[in-house]
Amino acid sequence: MRIFFTGGSGKAGKHAIQHLQAQGHQVTNADLVPSGLDIPELLVDLTDAGQVIGAMSQLSDWPDLDTGVPKYDAVVHFAAVARILIGTDGECFRQNTISTYNVMEAAVKLGIPKVIFASSETTYGICFAHGEVKPQYVPIDEDHPTIPEDSYAMSKVCNEATARSFQARTGMDIYGLRINNVFEPGDYPALFPDFLADPASRRRNFFAYIDARDLGHMVDCCLKTDGLGYEVFNVSNDDMSVDISSDEVIARFYEGVEVRRDMKPDETFYANDKAKRLVGFRPKHSWRDAMG
What we know:
Layout (H helix, E strand, L loop, with lengths): L1 E5 L4 H12 L3 E6 L9 E3 L5 H8 L7 H4 L6 E4 L11 H21 L4 E7 L16 E2 L12 H20 L2 E7 L2 E2 L3 H11 L12 E2 H12 L6 E6 L10 H8 L4 E2 L13 H7 L7 H5 L1
Parallel strand pairs: 1-2, 1-4, 2-3, 4-5, 5-7, 6-11, 7-10, 8-9
């Protein structure tokens, strides 16, 4: 497939693009800075609607001079202000919502039949909450309420509403990925010893994580799955990011929280069952393998 990918210069985007390339897809990256990957790249301000539709409807690389303007099969939209506490809250919200609207509108106008966009674990209102906020139940699935307090998560909830509206108007496939905390292979030896020593440090992420390589696999699964309309998916690895049992996590951190089903000893609290059922997601990496 020919893919227009936004935000491919970030950590998650780079790994996703490399996985997509390995599956045979052709990828053009649209970002404010180059990725350093061996792919066509366009420097685009995605908050400018004209730049967005222009980038999607122009030549992307030298071979296009002979073959013509590329016809994209899908858009993968990962570009965003990555979290709160980088710039101002309002600017985070503005950039994330406007860029998402522009990308989806351009895809619709150009007849691109599929958009996959990055939503977030933060939509559930836990990650960037002020003080201690617990989920309504565990494991957290896609039916859990999304009522966040912070501008980043608010932007992601708005983006999901935008996606649902575009899908309702057009009937195209638009899939949102509620991505958990992303780690690449080098992060495991560097960061996970601290997580194992202090499991409480992972409570805002539901004691979960997603390996960047498995995130790329999830994107590929969505590209290969047609006809779902609008859907959102939790994206996580199968195991927790801490080395204590699920029963201990429940006892120490989720007292009084409804536990909806029995859980395996190291099972993620950020349920990925829907992604497995509907698009064939099968994560295969674990911090345990990297740590020996």
